Amino acid sequence: MKLSKRILSGLIAATFLLIGISACGKSADTEKTTAQTEASGETTEAADKTTAAEIPSGNKKISVILMAANSDYWHMVEAGATLAGNEFGYDVTVVGPNSESDSVGQSNMVQDAVNNKVAAIVLAPNEPKVLVKATEYAKDEGVPVVLIDAILDTDDTSLYDSFIGTDNREAGKSAGEYLANQLQPGDKVAIIRGLVGQTSHDLRADGAEEAFNEAGMDVVAVQPADSDRGKAVNVMENILQSHPDVKAVYCTNDEMALGAYQAIKGKQLEDEVMTMGFDGSFGALDSIKAGELTASLAQKPIDEGYLGVKTAIELIEGKTVDKNIANGFIIVDSDNIEEFSADIDTRMAEAGQ
Length: 353
Prior knowledge:
Elements (H helix, E strand, L loop, with lengths): L1 H39 L4 H4 L12 E5 L6 H17 L2 E5 L7 H13 L4 E4 L7 H10 L4 E4 L13 E4 L2 H13 L7 E6 L5 H16 L3 E7 L4 H14 L5 E4 L2 H13 L7 E6 L2 H8 L5 E4 L2 H16 L7 E3 L3 E3 L4 H14 L3
Parallel strand pairs: 1-2, 1-3, 3-4, 4-5, 5-11, 6-7, 6-8, 8-9, 9-10
Antiparallel strand pairs: 10-12
């Protein structure tokens, strides 16, 4: 009987020893696999996905993802987003790539926001086709998306909950009509536009060209400068070399308008050529005050950022929102620049910018 107990004790000890060895081996293998995965830059599905159920109730984190973080216009959108966050008590984070052409960087920001378990995303897609996939990821994980400034290039409108922005074609047409009303039929005009394929710039250029054609203007050039001031200088210099008698240039954002004006001034043609931008940025407003730029079509970017965050908050709180919300626009020139600028300055100060 005593021997049987010893045998039994030995068997039990051996069994626990085998279990321990097996567990240690499994742990080592797991650590090895994890290390290999991390070294290769891969992530497991469990680590990469954030389900809606994992987003805590009462979450007040909103990520605002701009087309870029390198212009006055987007700083004004940021101010509006900040004002809304402060007013309603939400934690609003604003990010954006360094360039409007960096769609990969912006897509990664959308995925990071989802993985960080934000309650909602406010997105200004810089390349509406490319950003579709990132927005699909947000939808799959139950994170509502509010689009601002530009719409996604997709037929699946369920990917976003609301769109807030300007009717870019109508705004572009209004800008073209504004310039045409100060010219004569047959006068030469040019258009400098943003990145080809960016829907907002496509529409802004198309609307202006339509207005020019209807007014009998001679559209001598429609050239891209990718929303870059330096590129716009070169593009305008080339246009002036081919068409020194051009009477007006319309640009689909203010950065390009400021670059175009620089080229015009370099040729000492600032009294001969009207220059109009699009956005109502600080640089453009200062230039209009100085008697340089003729005008800018202002989209009310502070309102755009504010409404984007306000709509996201309504979605988080379970309220019904409109699918499309018009932000409106206004043409700013020497007649109304002081009043418009004073309002902008007041609201930027309130946002701490």
